[in-house]
Design a protein that fits this description.
Shape: globular
Oligomer: single chain
Low-confidence stretches: none
Radius of gyration: 24 Å
Strand content: 5-15%
Distance between the termini: 40 Å
Number of helices: 10
Order of helices and strands: HHHHHEEEHHEEHEHHE
Length: about 300
Protein backbone atom coordinates (compact mmCIF):
# COMPACT_ATOMS: atom_id res chain seq x y z
CA UNK A 1 0.00 0.00 0.00
CA UNK A 2 1.54 3.37 -0.99
CA UNK A 3 2.64 5.76 1.72
CA UNK A 4 0.41 8.72 2.55
CA UNK A 5 3.43 10.95 1.90
CA UNK A 6 3.82 9.77 -1.70
CA UNK A 7 3.34 12.83 -3.93
CA UNK A 8 0.54 12.65 -6.46
CA UNK A 9 1.92 12.36 -9.99
CA UNK A 10 1.19 15.41 -12.14
CA UNK A 11 -1.69 15.23 -14.58
CA UNK A 12 -1.20 15.54 -18.33
CA UNK A 13 -2.61 19.08 -18.22
CA UNK A 14 -0.19 20.10 -15.45
CA UNK A 15 2.73 18.79 -17.48
CA UNK A 16 1.39 20.58 -20.56
CA UNK A 17 1.08 23.85 -18.64
CA UNK A 18 4.66 23.49 -17.44
CA UNK A 19 5.80 23.01 -21.05
CA UNK A 20 3.79 26.06 -22.13
CA UNK A 21 5.43 28.17 -19.41
CA UNK A 22 8.86 27.20 -20.74
CA UNK A 23 7.82 28.15 -24.28
CA UNK A 24 6.15 31.42 -23.27
CA UNK A 25 8.86 32.69 -20.91
CA UNK A 26 11.30 33.81 -23.66
CA UNK A 27 8.41 35.21 -25.72
CA UNK A 28 7.27 37.26 -22.74
CA UNK A 29 10.83 38.51 -22.29
CA UNK A 30 10.90 39.63 -25.94
CA UNK A 31 7.50 41.32 -25.65
CA UNK A 32 8.48 43.21 -22.47
CA UNK A 33 11.80 44.25 -23.98
CA UNK A 34 10.04 45.78 -26.99
CA UNK A 35 7.01 47.29 -25.24
CA UNK A 36 4.34 44.86 -26.40
CA UNK A 37 1.54 44.79 -23.83
CA UNK A 38 0.04 41.67 -22.31
CA UNK A 39 -3.32 42.62 -23.82
CA UNK A 40 -1.88 42.59 -27.34
CA UNK A 41 -0.18 39.23 -26.75
CA UNK A 42 -3.41 37.86 -25.26
CA UNK A 43 -5.31 38.88 -28.41
CA UNK A 44 -2.80 36.98 -30.56
CA UNK A 45 -3.09 33.95 -28.25
CA UNK A 46 -6.90 34.01 -28.50
CA UNK A 47 -6.68 34.12 -32.29
CA UNK A 48 -4.33 31.13 -32.24
CA UNK A 49 -6.71 29.18 -29.98
CA UNK A 50 -9.69 29.93 -32.23
CA UNK A 51 -7.74 29.04 -35.36
CA UNK A 52 -6.61 25.70 -33.87
CA UNK A 53 -10.08 24.85 -32.54
CA UNK A 54 -11.77 25.70 -35.85
CA UNK A 55 -9.31 23.54 -37.83
CA UNK A 56 -9.90 20.65 -35.44
CA UNK A 57 -13.70 20.92 -35.66
CA UNK A 58 -13.61 21.08 -39.46
CA UNK A 59 -11.30 18.05 -39.57
CA UNK A 60 -13.79 16.16 -37.39
CA UNK A 61 -16.53 16.91 -39.94
CA UNK A 62 -18.79 18.99 -37.70
CA UNK A 63 -21.47 21.12 -39.33
CA UNK A 64 -20.33 24.66 -40.23
CA UNK A 65 -23.34 26.28 -38.55
CA UNK A 66 -22.27 24.82 -35.19
CA UNK A 67 -18.62 25.89 -35.43
CA UNK A 68 -18.89 28.99 -33.24
CA UNK A 69 -20.63 27.09 -30.46
CA UNK A 70 -18.16 24.22 -30.58
CA UNK A 71 -15.13 26.54 -30.71
CA UNK A 72 -16.48 28.40 -27.68
CA UNK A 73 -16.87 25.13 -25.78
CA UNK A 74 -13.38 23.89 -26.66
CA UNK A 75 -11.52 27.16 -25.97
CA UNK A 76 -13.58 28.62 -23.13
CA UNK A 77 -13.93 31.89 -25.07
CA UNK A 78 -17.45 33.32 -25.21
CA UNK A 79 -19.37 33.05 -28.48
CA UNK A 80 -19.36 36.77 -29.27
CA UNK A 81 -15.56 36.85 -28.96
CA UNK A 82 -15.26 33.69 -31.04
CA UNK A 83 -17.31 35.27 -33.85
CA UNK A 84 -15.05 38.34 -33.85
CA UNK A 85 -11.88 36.27 -33.72
CA UNK A 86 -12.99 33.88 -36.48
CA UNK A 87 -13.21 36.86 -38.84
CA UNK A 88 -9.68 37.89 -37.80
CA UNK A 89 -8.15 34.50 -38.58
CA UNK A 90 -10.08 33.65 -41.77
CA UNK A 91 -7.01 34.28 -43.91
CA UNK A 92 -4.98 31.71 -41.94
CA UNK A 93 -1.29 31.94 -41.07
CA UNK A 94 0.91 33.37 -43.82
CA UNK A 95 3.34 31.09 -45.64
CA UNK A 96 6.82 32.51 -44.99
CA UNK A 97 8.62 33.82 -48.05
CA UNK A 98 12.35 33.58 -48.67
CA UNK A 99 13.81 36.97 -49.59
CA UNK A 100 15.93 37.40 -52.70
CA UNK A 101 18.76 38.78 -50.57
CA UNK A 102 18.83 35.65 -48.43
CA UNK A 103 18.80 33.49 -51.58
CA UNK A 104 21.82 35.34 -52.98
CA UNK A 105 23.60 35.07 -49.63
CA UNK A 106 22.86 31.34 -49.27
CA UNK A 107 23.94 30.50 -52.81
CA UNK A 108 27.19 32.41 -52.32
CA UNK A 109 27.86 30.38 -49.17
CA UNK A 110 26.93 27.00 -50.64
CA UNK A 111 28.07 27.11 -54.27
CA UNK A 112 31.41 25.31 -54.44
CA UNK A 113 32.46 27.32 -57.49
CA UNK A 114 32.20 30.45 -55.32
CA UNK A 115 34.37 29.08 -52.50
CA UNK A 116 38.12 29.01 -51.94
CA UNK A 117 39.61 26.83 -49.21
CA UNK A 118 36.14 26.30 -47.80
CA UNK A 119 35.31 30.02 -47.58
CA UNK A 120 33.23 32.29 -49.85
CA UNK A 121 35.56 33.95 -52.33
CA UNK A 122 35.54 37.71 -52.95
CA UNK A 123 33.81 38.45 -56.24
CA UNK A 124 34.30 41.17 -58.83
CA UNK A 125 31.15 43.26 -58.78
CA UNK A 126 30.51 43.00 -62.53
CA UNK A 127 31.31 40.67 -65.41
CA UNK A 128 30.92 37.03 -66.27
CA UNK A 129 30.84 34.30 -63.62
CA UNK A 130 32.26 34.15 -61.10
CA UNK A 131 31.08 37.67 -60.26
CA UNK A 132 28.48 39.20 -57.98
CA UNK A 133 26.48 40.29 -61.01
CA UNK A 134 26.38 36.72 -62.37
CA UNK A 135 25.48 35.38 -58.92
CA UNK A 136 22.60 37.85 -58.55
CA UNK A 137 21.34 37.11 -62.08
CA UNK A 138 21.33 33.39 -61.28
CA UNK A 139 18.86 34.06 -58.47
CA UNK A 140 16.59 36.60 -60.14
CA UNK A 141 16.25 38.56 -63.36
CA UNK A 142 13.63 40.86 -61.84
CA UNK A 143 15.87 42.86 -59.48
CA UNK A 144 19.02 44.67 -60.56
CA UNK A 145 22.22 43.24 -59.00
CA UNK A 146 23.12 46.67 -57.64
CA UNK A 147 19.92 46.73 -55.59
CA UNK A 148 20.73 43.34 -54.06
CA UNK A 149 24.30 44.45 -53.38
CA UNK A 150 23.14 47.61 -51.63
CA UNK A 151 20.80 45.57 -49.44
CA UNK A 152 23.53 43.07 -48.51
CA UNK A 153 25.80 45.96 -47.53
CA UNK A 154 23.03 47.72 -45.59
CA UNK A 155 22.44 44.56 -43.58
CA UNK A 156 26.19 44.31 -42.91
CA UNK A 157 26.37 40.95 -44.61
CA UNK A 158 28.76 42.00 -47.37
CA UNK A 159 31.32 44.72 -48.06
CA UNK A 160 31.90 46.49 -51.38
CA UNK A 161 35.46 47.68 -51.92
CA UNK A 162 35.03 50.49 -54.43
CA UNK A 163 38.78 50.76 -55.12
CA UNK A 164 39.05 47.19 -56.41
CA UNK A 165 35.32 46.98 -57.28
CA UNK A 166 35.03 43.64 -55.47
CA UNK A 167 32.39 42.35 -53.07
CA UNK A 168 33.20 40.24 -50.00
CA UNK A 169 30.92 38.37 -47.62
CA UNK A 170 31.63 39.37 -44.02
CA UNK A 171 29.18 37.05 -42.26
CA UNK A 172 28.89 33.25 -42.31
CA UNK A 173 25.20 33.26 -41.37
CA UNK A 174 22.23 35.27 -42.62
CA UNK A 175 21.85 37.53 -39.60
CA UNK A 176 20.79 40.93 -40.98
CA UNK A 177 22.11 43.35 -38.37
CA UNK A 178 20.16 46.55 -38.01
CA UNK A 179 17.00 45.08 -39.57
CA UNK A 180 14.80 44.42 -36.54
CA UNK A 181 11.67 43.52 -38.51
CA UNK A 182 13.48 40.94 -40.62
CA UNK A 183 15.04 39.39 -37.53
CA UNK A 184 11.58 39.06 -36.00
CA UNK A 185 10.41 37.45 -39.22
CA UNK A 186 13.16 34.85 -38.92
CA UNK A 187 12.25 34.25 -35.27
CA UNK A 188 8.63 33.60 -36.15
CA UNK A 189 9.41 31.37 -39.13
CA UNK A 190 12.27 29.34 -37.63
CA UNK A 191 10.92 28.89 -34.11
CA UNK A 192 7.37 28.50 -35.41
CA UNK A 193 8.29 25.65 -37.74
CA UNK A 194 10.47 24.02 -35.07
CA UNK A 195 7.59 24.14 -32.61
CA UNK A 196 5.15 22.86 -35.24
CA UNK A 197 7.42 19.84 -35.76
CA UNK A 198 7.69 19.17 -32.03
CA UNK A 199 3.93 19.51 -31.45
CA UNK A 200 3.03 17.28 -34.38
CA UNK A 201 5.48 14.65 -33.13
CA UNK A 202 3.81 14.72 -29.70
CA UNK A 203 0.26 14.54 -31.06
CA UNK A 204 0.87 11.94 -33.75
CA UNK A 205 0.83 8.20 -33.08
CA UNK A 206 4.20 8.00 -34.84
CA UNK A 207 6.61 10.97 -35.03
CA UNK A 208 6.71 12.47 -38.51
CA UNK A 209 9.49 15.06 -38.21
CA UNK A 210 13.19 14.81 -37.47
CA UNK A 211 13.81 16.61 -34.16
CA UNK A 212 16.69 15.75 -31.88
CA UNK A 213 18.81 17.52 -29.29
CA UNK A 214 21.67 16.85 -26.88
CA UNK A 215 21.60 18.41 -23.41
CA UNK A 216 24.67 18.79 -21.19
CA UNK A 217 25.59 20.77 -18.08
CA UNK A 218 28.62 21.24 -15.86
CA UNK A 219 30.56 22.93 -18.69
CA UNK A 220 33.02 25.81 -18.61
CA UNK A 221 32.70 28.74 -21.06
CA UNK A 222 35.62 27.33 -23.06
CA UNK A 223 33.87 23.97 -23.35
CA UNK A 224 30.68 25.67 -24.54
CA UNK A 225 32.66 27.55 -27.19
CA UNK A 226 34.20 24.27 -28.35
CA UNK A 227 30.68 22.96 -28.97
CA UNK A 228 29.71 26.15 -30.82
CA UNK A 229 32.74 25.76 -33.09
CA UNK A 230 31.70 22.16 -33.77
CA UNK A 231 28.15 23.23 -34.60
CA UNK A 232 29.29 26.00 -36.96
CA UNK A 233 31.63 23.62 -38.77
CA UNK A 234 28.93 20.99 -39.28
CA UNK A 235 26.39 23.62 -40.31
CA UNK A 236 28.68 24.84 -43.11
CA UNK A 237 29.07 21.27 -44.32
CA UNK A 238 25.33 20.64 -44.13
CA UNK A 239 24.54 23.91 -45.91
CA UNK A 240 26.99 23.20 -48.74
CA UNK A 241 25.33 19.81 -49.34
CA UNK A 242 21.68 20.68 -48.62
CA UNK A 243 21.27 23.75 -50.85
CA UNK A 244 22.46 22.11 -54.11
CA UNK A 245 20.33 19.05 -53.30
CA UNK A 246 17.24 21.18 -52.67
CA UNK A 247 17.79 23.27 -55.81
CA UNK A 248 18.17 20.16 -57.96
CA UNK A 249 15.09 18.55 -56.41
CA UNK A 250 13.02 21.73 -56.92
CA UNK A 251 13.97 21.75 -60.61
CA UNK A 252 13.35 18.01 -61.04
CA UNK A 253 9.97 18.17 -59.27
CA UNK A 254 8.89 21.14 -61.38
CA UNK A 255 9.80 19.31 -64.59
CA UNK A 256 7.95 16.21 -63.39
CA UNK A 257 4.85 18.31 -62.76
CA UNK A 258 4.21 17.10 -59.22
CA UNK A 259 0.89 18.50 -57.96
CA UNK A 260 1.67 17.75 -54.29
CA UNK A 261 3.74 20.78 -53.30
CA UNK A 262 5.51 20.91 -49.93
CA UNK A 263 7.94 23.20 -48.15
CA UNK A 264 10.73 22.18 -45.80
CA UNK A 265 12.92 23.94 -43.23
CA UNK A 266 16.22 22.45 -42.06
CA UNK A 267 17.98 24.05 -39.10
CA UNK A 268 20.62 23.65 -36.43
CA UNK A 269 20.96 25.64 -33.21
CA UNK A 270 22.87 25.84 -29.95
CA UNK A 271 21.82 27.47 -26.69
CA UNK A 272 23.76 27.99 -23.49
CA UNK A 273 23.20 29.79 -20.18
CA UNK A 274 24.93 30.32 -16.84
CA UNK A 275 23.61 27.78 -14.33
CA UNK A 276 25.21 29.49 -11.30
CA UNK A 277 21.92 31.15 -10.33
CA UNK A 278 20.10 27.81 -10.35
CA UNK A 279 22.82 26.18 -8.27
CA UNK A 280 22.71 29.04 -5.75
CA UNK A 281 19.00 28.38 -5.36
CA UNK A 282 19.70 24.74 -4.55
CA UNK A 283 18.70 23.37 -7.94
CA UNK A 284 22.08 21.86 -8.76
CA UNK A 285 22.03 18.47 -10.45
CA UNK A 286 24.91 16.14 -11.32
CA UNK A 287 26.71 17.11 -14.53
CA UNK A 288 25.70 14.95 -17.45
CA UNK A 289 25.17 14.87 -21.18
CA UNK A 290 21.90 13.39 -22.38
CA UNK A 291 20.62 12.91 -25.93
CA UNK A 292 16.95 13.80 -26.34
CA UNK A 293 15.68 12.00 -29.45
CA UNK A 294 12.18 12.83 -30.71
CA UNK A 295 12.31 11.94 -34.37
CA UNK A 296 11.52 9.29 -36.92
Amino acid sequence: MPSLDTPKPPSDQEVLLDALRQVMAPLARLAVARGLTCASAEEALKQAFVHAARDEQIALGHAPHRLVSRISTVTGINRREVTRLVEAVDAGPPVPEVSLVSQVFTRWLSDRSLRVRGKPRPLPRQGDAPSFEALARSVTQDVHPRGLLDELCRLQLARWDTDSDTVTLIQDGFTPRGDWQRMLGFLGSNVGDHLQAAVQNVLAEEPTHFEQAVFADGLSPDSVEALRVLARRHWKTLLSEAVPLLESRIEADAQAGHADRRRVRLGLFTYHEDTAAHEAAGAHAPAHAVPQPKDT
